[in-house]
Recover the amino acids of this structure.
């Protein structure tokens, strides 16, 4: 039951509760979710992954190759992983909405577009939608 709730919360926060009817979404998260994710990242993630998501020799950076590894996987997999495994010193301590907001921030930081709420219809991007390759070149 908890996993089902997590997938639903992730889909809503990542998609901003909007999609376009019969065409692929123009974006993958809401701008407000990414903004909240940036705040959470600064509080809970930057101490290990760096203020600019650069990582260290012991901790992976969160741009380029990191997000490219998520391409082709369902959109809901990234926030589900974050909720289950992060932060490393307290895995499982993120709430589903926090994990989804952090995933939105990571997607924005890697060049994925936010949903254009003016052009989109109603509903949400399904958590099962496959994430395409990142728009920015892998570093």
């Amino acid at each position: 039951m908890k996993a089902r709730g997590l997938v639903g919360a992730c889909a809503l926060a990542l998609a901003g509760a909007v999609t376009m009817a019969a065409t692929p979404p123009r974006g993958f998260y809401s701008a407000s979710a990414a903004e909240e994710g940036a705040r959470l990242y600064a509080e809970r993630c930057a101490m290990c992954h760096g203020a600019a998501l650069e990582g260290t020799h012991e901790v992976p950076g969160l741009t380029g190759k990191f997000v490219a590894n998520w391409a082709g996987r369902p959109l809901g997999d990234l926030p589900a992983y974050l909720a289950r495994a992060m932060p490393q010193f307290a895995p499982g301590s993120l709430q589903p909405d926090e994990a989804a907001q952090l995933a939105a921030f990571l997607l924005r930081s890697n060049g994925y577009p936010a949903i254009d709420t003016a052009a989109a219809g109603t509903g949400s991007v399904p958590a099962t939608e496959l994430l395409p390759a990142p728009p920015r070149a892998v570093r």
Summary: Confidence is low (pLDDT under 50) at residues 16-23. The helical segments are 2-15, 31-44, 46-49, 65-68, 77-85, 96-109. The chain has six helices and no strands. The CA atoms of residues 30 and 64 lie 21 Å apart.
